[in-house]
Amino acid sequence: MTDYLTNIEWLHPWMLGLLVLPIGIFLYRMKWGSKGQVNWHISGLPASPLPRNWRMEVSALPTWLNYLAMGLIIVALARPQKILKEEQIDAEGIDIMLATDVSSSMLAQDFNPNRLEASKRIASDFIDKRPYDRIGLVVFAGESYTVSPLTTDHAVLKQLLSQIQPGLLQDGTAIGMGLAAAVNRLKDSKAKSKIVILLTDGVNNTGYIKPEAAAEIAKELGVKVYTIGMGTRGRAKAPVGRRPDGSFVFGYSRVEIDEKLLQFISQQTQGRYFRATSEQELRQIYEVIDKLEKTKMEINVFRRNLEYFYPLVLLAIGLLIASRAFAWSVLNVKP
């Protein structure tokens, strides 16, 4: 009901001032209307009020209905209208592939609770800020895998993102494989802007596609690559081995990120390289990328009015008819 009454405008608001008429008449009759009545007293009989029956109790109902009908007609003459707006959004979206490292080193605990969970959390927030873009997800370790192609179904994409874990792929860091897989998903894109956000915490040490070759392919296809090196400076508590049951053994190891390679990839493709040593820095990096790659939108607003004049007048007429019918049938008041 509240939604039905929102966004109301009045075409002739000054007409509402006429509401003082039915309100004033009603108040006058309530206070002074009975003063003109003649009270009869017969000598020898005790003065007592006449007995009241149910007809007397409801005798004022037609009058109230008339006042209400008069008020509705005045409100109708003020022409209340509900404003309906329709938006047509023409968006020139950006196609974005997220290439995320899922090697065992992403379980390092220099982020809360670890690098991978922090990166997933922040990437999910980034996805929420890009409602009109197609976004996909590639993961890589010793090999690469496409988790989701480009899609606008961001709810499904975020669910898939939340499920990625180390151990899904052979361990290692194949940056070239991850970048090549992401670029391959963009090669047929018709978007005017195509970007890859590649996040890793290590050094390329495996894979049959060199990162330099993948960067060259991205350059030829017009794909811009933003690279992010994730990890604190110095040492971090990270997996250093595995037990027979498959669980990781943690110890302190030196953080090594091939920053020169990541800078080369970004420079080759007109992108940028970032280093994130904390969750706050990583969040700021995604905010910078969000600002650098803005989606162009044109919003056309169409306005329509829902007229309340006729329903109010019909309701007023209905009340007047009900008033007359009640007076004739129940109160036996003849016209």
A few lines on this structure:
The protein folds into two domains: 1-28 and 56-88 and 301-335, no CATH class; 94-294, Rossmann fold. 37% of the residues lie in helices and 25% in strands. The protein has helices spanning 20-32, 54-57, 61-77, 115-128, 154-163, 175-186, 211-220, 259-268, 279-292, 309-329; strands at 8-10, 80-92, 95-101, 134-140, 144-151, 194-200, 223-230, 235-242, 248-254, 273-276, 296-307.
What do these coordinates show?
- There is one protein chain.
- The protein has 2 domains: 1-28 and 56-88 and 301-335, no CATH class; 94-294, von Willebrand factor, type A domain (Rossmann fold, 3-Layer(aba) Sandwich).
- Helix content is 37%, strand content 25%.
- It has helices spanning 20-32, 54-57, 61-77, 115-128, 154-163, 175-186, 211-220, 259-268, 279-292, 309-329; strands at residues 8-10, 80-92, 95-101, 134-140, 144-151, 194-200, 223-230, 235-242, 248-254, 273-276, 296-307.
- It has a 6-stranded mixed β-sheet, sandwiched between helices.
- Helix 3 (61-77) runs antiparallel to helix 10 (309-329) and helix 4 runs antiparallel to helix 5.
- The model is unreliable at 36-42 (pLDDT under 50).
Report the CATH architecture of the largest domain. Answer: 3-Layer(aba) Sandwich
- The helix content, as a percent range, equals 25-40%
Strand content: 25-35%
Shape: elongated
| Total DSSP E strands | 11
CATH superfamily of the largest domain: von Willebrand factor, type A domain
What would you call the structural class?
A: alpha/beta
Q: Which CATH class of the largest domain? A: Alpha Beta
Order of helices and strands: EHHHEEHEEHHEHEEEHEHEH
Low-confidence stretches: 36-42
Largest sheet: 6 strands, mixed
Mean pLDDT across every amino acid position:
85
